[in-house]
Write a structure and sequence with these properties.
Shape: globular
Mean pLDDT: 95
Distance between the termini: 36 Å
Number of domains: 2
Helix content: 55-70%
Structural class: alpha+beta
Strand order of the largest sheet: 2-1-3-4
Number of strands: 4
Order of helices and strands: EHEEEHHHHHHHH
CATH topology of the largest domain: Glutathione S-transferase Yfyf (Class Pi), Chain A, domain 2
Largest sheet: 4 strands, mixed
Number of helices: 9
Radius of gyration: 17 Å
Length: 239
């Protein structure tokens, strides 16, 4: 049995971590049995969640975990895609995970005190007060450094959100009226897209990025459909 180590559920979402949602959605898409172990990054092999324990084999990084699952269990939602479609899906996945993700991280870690307090409580609230405040301060400094190193952190908030809105528009325009990003059947791209978009749209973190995402009705509807299909136990509460 696979043990999926991730944050505790909160905010009415599958997870506050975009990549935890990605991985759990992939497991559910492919009907791979698993159990959840609530954890914190402090306990993770690479200092990040998610990671899995598969019969004593601990694997971190959602990309490497998917490769492991595909190799060991013969899973994959993309066999129906052509080579050209696979290339398109991979490009959108990179847009989501290497660009839009970082702009969404700004909204949690470096945009308004109320956002930071909500983020801090959700992640570190299980710790005793002194440990909570210390761990939160350390991780906030670390993640703000990563955002700066990425390059996004060197831009003004106005510039960051302008780029994020362009990403959202590209996603909305490509999705159109399709049920899933690559057509009538879900693919790995949907696990990634849902994980990032639902965290922008569905959580309590307020920003121009969220406002713009909500203005694109098909992105809102997409998240609602994905949650109803793969997480029917979680009622849809987004704005």
């Amino acid at each position: 049995m696979i043990i999926l180590h991730q944050f505790a559920r909160t905010w009415g979402l599958p997870n506050l971590s975009q990549f935890c949602v990605k991985l759990e959605t992939y497991l559910r898409m492919n009907r791979i049995p698993y159990q959840i172990a609530e954890s914190l990054p402090l306990k993770a092999p690479r200092g990040k969640l998610p990671f899995i324990d598969d019969e004593g084999h601990r694997i971190a990084d959602s990309r490497l975990i998917l490769h492991h699952l595909q190799s060991k269990y013969g899973t994959g939602r993309d066999a129906h895609l052509s080579s050209e479609e696979l290339a398109t899906a991979k490009s959108f996945q990179r847009l989501l995970e290497e660009h839009l993700y970082w702009i969404s991280m700004v909204t949690r870690w470096d945009y308004g005190d109320s956002n930071w307090q909500a983020n801090k409580a959700a992640i570190f609230g299980v710790l005793p007060p002194i440990a909570r405040d210390l761990a939160a301060a350390v991780y906030r400094r670390k993640i703000k450094g990563q955002i700066l190193g990425h390059g996004i952190g060197r831009l003004s908030h106005e510039e960051k959100f302008k780029l994020g809105k362009e990403d959202l528009d590209s996603l909305a325009d490509f999705l159109g009226e399709k049920p899933y990003f690559m057509g009538k059947r879900p693919s790995t791209l949907d696990a990634s897209a849902y994980g990032i978009l639902v965290n922008i749209i569905g959580g309590p973190i307020e920003s121009p990025l969220k406002d713009h995402a909500l203005s694109r009705q098909n992105l809102h509807d997409y998240c609602r459909r994905m949650q109803a299909e793969f997480y029917p136990e979680l009622p849809w509460r987004a704005s």
